[in-house]
Amino acid sequence: MKYLVGKASGETAVYAVMGSDAVDLTALDAAVGTDLMALVADPALAESVAGKVAGAPTIPVADITPALPVKAPGSIICLGLNYTDHIKEGGYDIPDYPALFMRGKNSIMAAGAPLVRPTCSEKLDYEAELMLIIGKGGRHISQDDALDHVFGYTVFNDGSVRDYQRKTHQWTPGKNFDQTGAIGPYVVTPEDLPAGASGLKIESRVGDEILQSSNTGNMIWSVAHAIAIISEYTTLEPGDMIAMGTPPGVGHAKKPNPRWLVPGEVVDIEIEQIGICSSPIVDEKDLAAGGAQ
C-alpha cells in the first residue's frame, strides 16, 4: 500500500494512492484518523480499510497538500556515515559503529513545505535519505526479526547547516534548525518494496542538476542491522522514525567549490518506487516577513 497524509478541501486525511488518484481512507473509516498512527498501531484496521478501497471514490493526488505522515513521532533517530563514498568525501575514517544523532520535532516538516535557510548561515546542505517508520515496537530486536517491525518507508531530506554541524562533535545544532528536515510525501509498506528497501535508486536534484545519485543497496548498515543496533540501547515504539544516512555528492564536499542551497531553488529527493520529496528553499528572514506560506 502507498499512503499519503494530506489536506484536500480543508480537511486532513489519510489516502491510499493508486497512480495519479487517491482514495480517502479516513472517509471510509473514521477510525483511520488524520495521520498514520492508527494504522501503525492496528494492523487489523489497515487490513480492513484496504479491503474497502476497490470501487471507492477517488480524487487527484495533485489536489492533496501533503502533511507529515506521523504528526508527532516519538523519536527521530538518524544514521550518519552510512555510505562508504560519503564517508570518504567528508574526510572521515570508516567506522565500525554507525554515527547516530537525534532530530527534534521543530526540525521536521512535510514534503512541499519550505525548507528554511537560517539567518545565521548560508551553508545549507541537502542529504537524500531513506527513512523508515517503526510499526511494531521493541527492545533487543534481532536482525532476523527486524524487518517485521517496519510499518513503511518514506523519503527524507536531512537538510544540514554545515558550519553549525561542525561546532560540536555531536552534530546536534547543524541537524536541528527549524524546518530543515523534509519528510514524505508517500509512505510505502514493505510488501510493495524489496526487503529492507534495498536496491533502490536514490537521488537528489535541483532542476536538471543531479546532486547525488546512488543506490540504497550501498548502505553499510542495512535497515535490519540499524534497527538491531538502535534497539540495543533504546526501546523503539510505533511511529518512531529512523533515517538511514546519505550517499555521496553532498554540497559541502563538491570541488572546487561547495554547492549550497539558495532561496528560490527547489530541491527534489527521489527514491525509486517510493516517490519524490520536493522542498522550495526560502530564507528565514523572508519566511518571518511573510514571504512564503
- Globally, the shape reads globular
> How helical, in percent, are the residues?
10-25%
Strand order of the largest sheet: 7-6-18-11-12-14-8
Write down the overall mean pLDDT.
Answer: 96
Biggest sheet layout: 7 strands, mixed
User: Which value, in Å, is the CA radius of gyration?
Assistant: 18 Å
Order of helices and strands: EEEHHHEEEHEEEEEHEEHEEEEHEEEH
CATH fold-level assignment of the largest domain: Fumarylacetoacetate hydrolase, domain 2
**Count of DSSP H/I helices:** 8
Task: State the CATH superfamily name of the largest domain.
Answer: Fumarylacetoacetase-like, C-terminal domain
Structural class: alpha+beta
Poorly predicted parts? none
Give me the count of strands.
Answer: 20
Keywords summarizing the entry:
alpha+beta, Fumarylacetoacetase-like_C, 293 residues, Fumarylacetoacetase_C_sf, 16% helix, isomerase activity, Fumarylacetoacetate hydrolase, domain 2, 6-stranded antiparallel sheet, 7-stranded mixed sheet, 33% strand, 2-keto-4-pentenoate hydratase/2-oxohepta-3-ene-1,7-dioic acid hydratase (Catechol pathway)
Task: Explain what you see.
Strands 7-6-18-11-12-14-8 form a seven-stranded mixed β-sheet, covered by helices on one side. Strands 1, 2, 3, 4, 5 and 15 form a six-stranded antiparallel β-sheet that branches. The chain has two domains: 2-66, no CATH class; 76-288, Fumarylacetoacetase-like, C-terminal domain (Fumarylacetoacetate hydrolase, domain 2, Alpha-Beta Complex). It has 293 residues and is of the alpha+beta class. It has helices at residues 25-28, 37-41, 43-50, 84-89, 143-146, 162-165, 223-233, 284-288, and strands spanning 2-8, 11-18, 21-24, 58-60, 65-66, 76-80, 99-102, 108-110, 115-117, 124-125, 128-134, 150-158, 160-161, 181-183, 186-188, 201-206, 209-215, 241-243, 266-271, 275-283. InterPro entries: FAH, Fumarylacetoacetase-like_C, Fumarylacetoacetase_C_sf. Belongs to the FAH family. GO terms for molecular function: isomerase activity; metal ion binding.
